[in-house]
Structures are given as C-alpha cells and as structure tokens.
Amino acid sequence: MTEPDLSSYDNSWYSPGRGQLVRSLWFFLGLPILRSRLLPSSSIRSSLLRWFGATIGRGVVLKPGIRVKYPWFLTISDNSWIGEEVWIDNLILVRIGASVCISQGAYLCTGNHDWADRSFGLQVKAVTVEDGAWVGAKALICPGATIGKSAVVAAGSVVTANVPSYEVHGGNPAQFLRRREFRDA
Length: 185
What we know:
With 185 residues, this protein is of the alpha/beta class. The chain has helices at residues 20-35, 42-51, and strands at 55-56, 61-62, 67-68, 74-76, 81-82, 87-89, 94-96, 101-102, 107-109, 111-113, 122-124, 127-129, 134-135, 140-141, 146-147, 152-153, 158-159, 167-170, 175-179. The longest helix is centred in the first third of the chain and has 16 residues, at 20-35.
C-alpha cells in the first residue's frame, strides 16, 4: 500500500482560459463587485459578467453574494434565477438553460481530484442544468452532472450523476423520489 504524495501534484495541463492579468482583474475587482450586497440590480451583475466573457441571456436574475470562478466559462439562458450565495465553481463550462432556478447556497462544482492517483491529479468535467430545472437551496452538483429538462434537485441534496428530465431527486447521494408533473394554474 502506498501513500499519497502531494509533492508530485501537477496540473500544468489545465488552462483557466484567460491570462494572469484578466484573472487578476476578475478576482480583485470583478468578483468583489459581483458579490456586493450594495448593488441594487441584476442588470449590473449581468453586465459585469458579460464584460468578463460570460454569456448571459435576457431577464436573468442574479442575487447578491453569488460567486463565479471564471465568467468566461459560464452561460446562463433567458429568464433564469441565481439565488443568494450560489457558488459556481467553474473550472470548465457551466451551462444553465432558460427558466432555471438555482436556489440559495447551491454549489455547482466542475473540479475534483482523482483519489486513486498518488499525486491527487485534477479532474474537470462540465456541469449542465437544462431548461426549466430547479436546483434547491444548499444542493451540491458534482462535476460532470447534467440536471435534465424541468428536473428538480431537492434542497441539501448531493448530485453525483445525471438527473433525468422531469424527475425529482433528493438525498445524499441524490436518488429518484418522483416524477415532476405540472398542474394548470
């Protein structure tokens, strides 16, 4: 049995998608403005993210306190809501569809480490949340997961695999609970 050797860790293969100057501007200027509770509107947050390379649709609501690792790896389609304290830890693409709700404190994670690798190698996998889906408060979406069209991830759940369209999943690890059916208003 061997032990991990973190001194041999090497993620030189990974590219954060922008140079040091742009990343520094984001972390020291853009991100603090994005997270600010003093900003009165989502339009300023949307404009800021666009300025740093994100694709943000019309009618997107971005609440105070959200955190985005790299805006240039973020796409949010029309009329989606991103709640307070949501953390989009996007080392690679995160795509959020139209009319999606990501509730308070949810964490969308695109990076992990290979626990079987002695040097604990970095792994990155995109996250997709399809149109009409809802990710509940404090839910964790793990690297590589796709939340299907109009699917629901219950509050506090840990999603380690795909959630099929129109299904409600909950728990740790998240498991199928029921189908999502809409009733007329």
